[in-house]
Design brief:
The complex is a heterodimer.
Chain A (H helix, E strand, L loop, with lengths): L1 H16 L5 E5 L2 H11 L3 E5 L14 H9 L2 E4 L9 H8 L11 E3 L35 H15 L4 H25 L7 E4 L5 H7 L2 E5 L10 H13 L4 E5 L5 H10 L3 E4 L12 H16 L3
Parallel strand pairs in A: 1-2, 1-3, 3-4, 5-6, 5-7, 7-8
Helix pairs in contact in A: 2-5, 3-4, 5-6, 6-10, 8-9
Chain B lengths: L1 H74 L12 E12 L23 E4 L2 E8 L4 E9 L5 E10 L6 E9 L20 H7 L4 E10 L5 E9 L16 E12 L3 E22 L9 E20 L9 E19 L13 E21 L2 E11 L4 E2 L16 E12 L2 E11 L6 E13 L7
Antiparallel strand pairs in B: 1-2, 1-3, 1-18, 3-4, 4-5, 5-6, 6-7, 7-8, 8-9, 9-10, 10-11, 11-12, 12-13, 13-14, 13-15, 14-16, 16-17, 17-18
The chains are: A alpha/beta, B alpha+beta.
């Protein structure tokens, strides 16, 4: 009896002394976990549902994710149907109406930016296309400015007592980010107009920002595995219209890129794609420092 | 005089100018200096303003986007949910080619009083086409309907339920027709199965799947790990229930599931289920008997059915990236106790030839389990292995029927199944399956199946 009482007491004490966070946040992808961390610092307990080494289209609706969503007050996701294959199950099963689509607790980053590659024709014949446009918005640094602003406003809406704190964090982040963008753009100047090949159609926002020119894709259709026949076609095309490098996201199989690298004699470059995708991409700043460093190294032939 | 004055002026003017210059010059210089400073200041100001203008024009695009974003965020437009106002629609097309050595109608040894719907057809056959519709009904409810289009004609409602969306605190309430939450496989639709057919234990103890008309309440605990408790009250319309005409509940289910992640690559879920119902006048045909009647006899059972089950699933993918390679291991065990009255050689009154219609007590405990592993060894390709086993149990047969009803079959039905499937995309699947079915004593059946499963329309999200 006494031990039970002591254990109960210990449990209560543990609960009382545990750090109390203002907001419990469920981030669908690591880049949004990192951005939320920049904007909310220690005012939020942030859980990232996926890592940069996982294909964000194909995530299992794991029991652990349902349990985390149950307690979340804010969901920070890309939206634009990126999570359509797993998030709806988690939302239904979590029994948490606060994070349902359309509620303040459901934040979709894609609402804050201008979407690229919005398909004019919706047909699965085109592969895994998304009606709202290409969802890989996190590859362009300028996209984070409007997203940060909207996210900060959402944090303040859900946690008004810390509104001033979120505002000042946003201001600091915006200043640092703008300065970083200037630096990145200067560093990336040699990349402008350079022809590249991508493994998956995952970089339109990066291309648009830095002026890279995508000339071919290794996947025959978005989301479909590169086939040998398609790779040969791309190789033939590259012999007529050479490219500087072939790029892929960290979570993707390296084989198609390496095959192309070997046959077309161009470097294969693995980009972090999100925070944690490479050792250098420790946070959002590291993500772009490393992305640009890797692209420049690719351009210089390593 | 005038001339003189003029001269004087002419002479002295420069002088006076000269005289004034010393003092004035300083003033003028000061003025010029002031002007210069003033202009410099103005130029600097202008330059600054120009810089600001340039900067703001640079940011104009961003600002515009920000403003737009802010406006959008303020109005918070419909987040990409299921369709605009149209429900999400999906259609599953599926068909098989079967090569069987035995008649699929022969029932599993020791389970002749269970349904034997294995779904096998020799040669080509279209399987049920499944039409799914789902949408939010209003802020409180969401509706889901799955219609099964029978290849022989006719439509059955497989699922048609309403789910609450705003209860909160981890509660989910469901009512209508749904697949019971017991076990692991029971809630999964046929198109999501990893094999052409269900495990033997599901076929014999649950008639493949328990679909209930009733209510289900689930509660998810606010814990870091997944802990879910559920309860159901239903009509008992599907086996082992017999769909009695009865006020109140005809069946009850309790289940609990726990789950979590192991490292970055692994995740698991385990569960316990309890199911209880009653059968009334459940008639089984072609039941073998001790007299060795050709084609067996018909028996009728009325009584209680209590089932307990354990289920476990473990999934692993390197780094949690399922796209490349992944592995799934799952197993389930069910044990059922039936007790009541059995009427041997039953025939309805007036039917000829009349059976002997002997009624006495009957009780039996039957169980079964399966274990299966599915391995995606490269993108798009998966292979799976399954082992099935059943225990028909030893029945306690009342004295009146002791010479009629077989109480101990002394046989353990088993099956080994091997599957290979190819998924050109996440919407299409082509499968080949071979099995050695020893579920019927002395009738080993080497089976081959080819199957296609295609999904059209809305991108359905899959359960764990």
């Amino acid at each position: 009896m006494r031990t039970i009482f002591n254990m109960l007491l210990a449990a209560i004490l543990a609960l009382l002394t545990a750090p109390t966070f203002a907001l419990n946040i469920f981030a669908c992808e690591p880049e949004w976990a990192a951005l939320t961390k920049e904007l909310a610092a220690d005012k939020a307990d942030i859980y990232s549902a996926t890592t940069a080494l996982q294909d964000p289209h194909q995530i299992q609706a794991r029991p652990s994710l349902i349990a985390k969503a149950r307690r979340a007050q804010l969901l920070v996701c890309t939206g634009a149907e990126l999570e359509v294959g797993w998030l709806p199950v988690i939302l239904h099963e979590s029994g948490n109406p606060d994070i349902a689509p359309g509620r303040p607790g459901n934040f979709e980053a894609a609402h804050s930016v201008t979407m690229l590659e919005v398909p004019s024709r919706l047909d699965r014949e085109e592969g895994d296309v998304h009606a709202a446009g290409n969802p890989h918005i996190q590859t362009s640094a300028p996209n984070y400015l409007p997203i940060a602003q909207a996210l900060s406003a959402r944090l303040a809406e859900l946690d008004p007592s810390n509104a001033a704190f979120y505002r000042s964090r946003l201001q600091t982040f915006t200043q640092r980010w703008q300065a970083a963008i200037v630096r990145w753009e200067k560093q990336a100047a040699p990349l402008k107009g350079q022809p590249i090949v991508v493994q998956h159609r995952g970089f339109p926002y990066l291309n648009n920002w830095l002026g890279l020119k995508q000339v071919a894709e290794l996947e025959p259709k978005p989301g479909m595995e590169p086939s040998v026949s398609h790779l040969s076609q791309v190789l033939e095309q590259l012999q007529r219209q050479p490219a500087k490098m072939v790029i892929r996201a960290a979570y993707q199989n390296s084989k198609p890129s390496e095959w192309m690298s070997e046959h077309a004699h161009i470097p294969a470059v693995a980009l972090p794609f999100s925070v944690g995708g490479t050792d250098g991409a420790k946070d959002l700043f590291g993500l772009f420092d490393d992305t640009i460093a890797r692209l420049l190294a690719g351009l210089n032939g390593n | 005089m005038f001339k003189y004055t003029a001269l004087c002026v002419a002479l002295f003017a420069p002088l006076s100018t000269y005289a004034a210059s010393d003092e004035d010059l300083r003033a003028i210089r000061a003025q010029i200096q002031q002007l210069k400073e003033n202009y410099e200041q103005r130029i600097t100001q202008l330059e600054q303003r120009l810089q600001q203008a340039e900067a703001s024009s640079k940011n104009a695009e961003t600002t515009a986007v920000q403003a737009q974003a802010a406006a959008q965020q303020a109005s918070r437009p419909a987040a990409s949910s299921e369709g605009a106002f149209n429900p999400a629609m999906s259609l599953i097309l599926s068909g098989t080619y079967g090569q069987l050595q035995r008649d699929p109608a022969i029932s599993t040894t020791g389970f002749a009083m269970s349904p034997n719907n294995n779904g096998y057809t020799k040669g080509f056959s279209l399987k049920e086409s499944e039409l799914g519709v789902s949408a939010n009904i209003d802020p409180q409810f969401r509706g889901v309907a799955t219609m099964s289009l029978n290849p022989a004609g006719g439509v059955t409602v497989e699922n048609g339920f309403v789910q609450t969306t705003s209860l909160g605190n981890g509660f989910n309430f469901k009512f209508g027709r749904y697949f019971s939450g017991l076990g692991y496989l029971n809630e999964q639709h046929a198109h999501a199965w990893d094999f052409v057919d269900q495990p033997l234990v599901y076929r014999t103890l649950w008639d493949n799947q328990v679909g209930e008309d009733g209510v289900q309440l689930k509660w998810l605990a606010p814990t870091d790990a997944f802990v879910e408790l559920g309860a159901e009250l239903g009509s008992g319309r599907s086996f082992p229930g017999s769909g009695r005409q009865k006020n109140g509940a005809g069946s009850g289910v309790l289940f609990a599931h726990v789950g979590d992640d192991v490292g970055t690559g692994g995740s698991w879920r385990a569960g316990v289920s309890l199911h209880q119902t009653k059968a009334e006048n459940w008639v089984s045909n072609n039941v073998p008997n001790l007299a060795g009647t050709v084609g067996g006899v018909s028996d009728r059972f009325s009584g209680d059915s209590k089932t307990a089950g354990l289920d476990f699933v473990w999934k692993y993918a390197p780094n949690g990236n399922v796209t490349e390679t992944n592995f799934k291991l799952q197993g389930e065990y069910f044990r059922r106790k039936q007790s009541g009255l059995l009427t041997y050689d039953f025939t309805a009154p007036g039917v000829t030839p009349a059976g002997v219609n002997i009624t006495d007590t009957y009780a039996v405990t039957q169980s079964g389990w399966y274990m299966q592993g599915v391995y995606q060894f490269m993108p798009r390709w998966r292979m799976g292995l399954r082992y099935d086993q059943l225990d028909p149990g030893i029945a306690q047969v009342g004295a009146l029927n002791a010479v009629n009803v077989i109480s101990n079959y002394g046989y353990t039905p088993k099956r080994d199944t091997l599957m290979l499937d190819f998924n050109p995309s996440e919407f299409s699947r082509l499968r080949v399956q071979v099995a050695q079915d020893k579920s019927r004593q002395g009738l080993t059946d080497n089976q081959l199946f080819l199957q296609y499963v295609m999904s059209l329309g809305a991108h359905g999200a899959h359960q764990f």
